Amino acid sequence: MEVIADPIAMQRRAEAARRWGDRIALVPTMGFLHEGHLTLMREGRARASMLVASIFVNPTQFGPNEDLAHYPRDLSGDLAKLREVPVDVVFTPDREAIYTPGAQTWVEVTELTRGLCGAHRPGHFRGVTTIVAKLFNLVKPHFAIFGEKDFQQLRAIQRMVIDLNFDLEIVPMPIVREKDGLAMSSRNAYLSPDERRDALALSRALFAARDHYVAGMRDAETLRKTALKVIAETPKVELEYLEAVDADTLEWPARADRPILLAVAARVGTTRLIDNIVLGVRRP
Amino acid sequence: MEVIADPIAMQRRAEAARRWGDRIALVPTMGFLHEGHLTLMREGRARASMLVASIFVNPTQFGPNEDLAHYPRDLSGDLAKLREVPVDVVFTPDREAIYTPGAQTWVEVTELTRGLCGAHRPGHFRGVTTIVAKLFNLVKPHFAIFGEKDFQQLRAIQRMVIDLNFDLEIVPMPIVREKDGLAMSSRNAYLSPDERRDALALSRALFAARDHYVAGMRDAETLRKTALKVIAETPKVELEYLEAVDADTLEWPARADRPILLAVAARVGTTRLIDNIVLGVRRP
């Protein structure tokens, strides 16, 4: 497994691989890898002859009052996990090599990033789409694998790929959950045992709505209220939003004849958690 | 010479060429080609084994009160000129194929596009950097050739290439002028014979400042005033701006020990014209 820190070296390696005929898959991460990430890696492994994982805690997608400074890190643990997949190249650039002096270019997806997390984290998605565009140009992948845990991020990146004509395929992968339902997240490491138990309210709320949907309920607002009621039962969960929107446009209201995204963000203690579920048959 | 209208076909052609080992040069244009464009084409021809010219009147870089609807067009004349270079591929996409329904992604270079034309054409440079990013992903060039006539555009694109890690080299080319000094522009076609004569005030003003610089004057504001005085002698030239800024950062004030960009925009009749000159030794 190669570990490459220099962006220019990464780009040269990718260009040489493409010329050679390799099919490149990229899994972009911020490190502190869990089973969710590794599921993405294995999908990339199956699709490509050269699998690249990037580890970069991207400062431009954190707000000034967010957890950039103490975002969890474990590079040696990450590398051990990636070696097992196995990954071919780990791209671990420094912040200074990625954002050079005078950097002032932003890639912005407008409508899709307005609501949900976009409304609560100003500048977050602009940071995400900008770093992902940069990674695409540095790693030159044929496939890029993203988890549905960050559903709005996934939709914004899919839109960016179409709008900027990136020559690659975005591969979305389902959320990976702990046995008790908690969506896997690097930020779960912040939770105390009590908070870990409270955090289950998020997935429990989404599953209650799903059960209601499976039982025939199609009204988005009713489904949302079913989930809200479950969240309300755990007072230590401080809700940021819980919305039912169209799973493609992320717009409200969701129509009964189309897939509904039920998305939730909440604080448990000081930790911000997100989760979501799609109700209904999805477009490919 | 191939003429390709379909973006997907263009991208496949470019990818195949790269795999084959071709070196691709791109000259993006809005058509109605003149000798300035053809100089760019010849530079691309000299550098690459596959020369691509694009012709696309990009709607997103025109303001609502600008000349999009009657921008001059002459596709058959353009193709004849390109065949002479010779160009290998002409990319002539439709507007609908470039901006698909739901398009909402913008590439924006912030500081460099604030002053000069950016201050007078809101949204213009955002439209330029977005279409150029798209063309880079569709044509996959190793080189892209741009004229210094649109100096601020050149600087914004150079910055975008660095910031988004595009794997290509921007090749700037000097302004091409008519024998009497008028900078070549497709928009010169709008000018009546009288306006054509009045328009010479722009280059005359820049040359007067250059003569003053060559004679030893290094104060940017004095050089600006030298040029302003010449413009004022032609009352039919309605000045939009005439500025002396740092040729790299485009910021005011220009320092005496660094290259100065003297840039002018003015209306002659209803036609908006721009011109510029760099005073001092330039960075490569």
Explain this structure:
Two copies of one chain form a homodimer. Chain A has 284 residues and is of the alpha/beta class. Chain A folds into two domains: 2-173, Rossmann fold; 186-277, Pantoate-beta-alanine ligase, C-terminal domain (Pantoate--beta-alanine Ligase, Chain: A,domain 2), CATH 3.30.1300. The first copy, chain A, is 38% helix and 21% strand. In chain A, the strands form two sheets. A six-stranded parallel β-sheet of chain A has the order 1-4-3-2-6-7, sandwiched between helices. Chain A has a three-stranded antiparallel β-sheet with strand order 8-9-10. In chain A, strand 6, helix 7 (151-163) and strand 7 (169-173) form a beta-alpha-beta unit. In chain A, helix 6 (124-139) crosses helix 7 and helix 9 packs antiparallel against helix 10 (220-232).
- Text of the CATH class of the largest domain in chain A: Alpha Beta
State the end-to-end CA separation of chain A.
33 Å
Query: How would the global form of chain A be characterised?
Result: globular
Oligomer: homodimer
The strands making up the biggest β-sheet of chain A line up spatially as: 1-4-3-2-6-7
Pair of chains with the largest interface and how many residues each contributes: A-B, 33 and 33 residues
Radius of gyration of chain A, whole Å: 19 Å
Q: What structural class results from the helix and strand content of chain A?
A: alpha/beta
CATH superfamily of the largest domain in chain A: HUPs
Tally of separate domains of chain A: 2
Helix and strand sequence of chain A: EHEHEHEHEHHEHEHHHEEE
CATH architecture designation of the largest domain in chain A: 3-Layer(aba) Sandwich
| Largest sheet composition of chain A | 6 strands, parallel
Task: Catalogue the unreliable spans of chain A.
Answer: none
**What is the helical fraction of chain A, as a range of percent?**
25-40%
Count the DSSP helices of chain A.
10
How much of the sequence lies in strands of chain A comes to 15-25%
The total count of strands of chain A amounts to 10
Report the CATH topology name of the largest domain in chain A: Rossmann fold
* Average pLDDT figure of chain A: 96
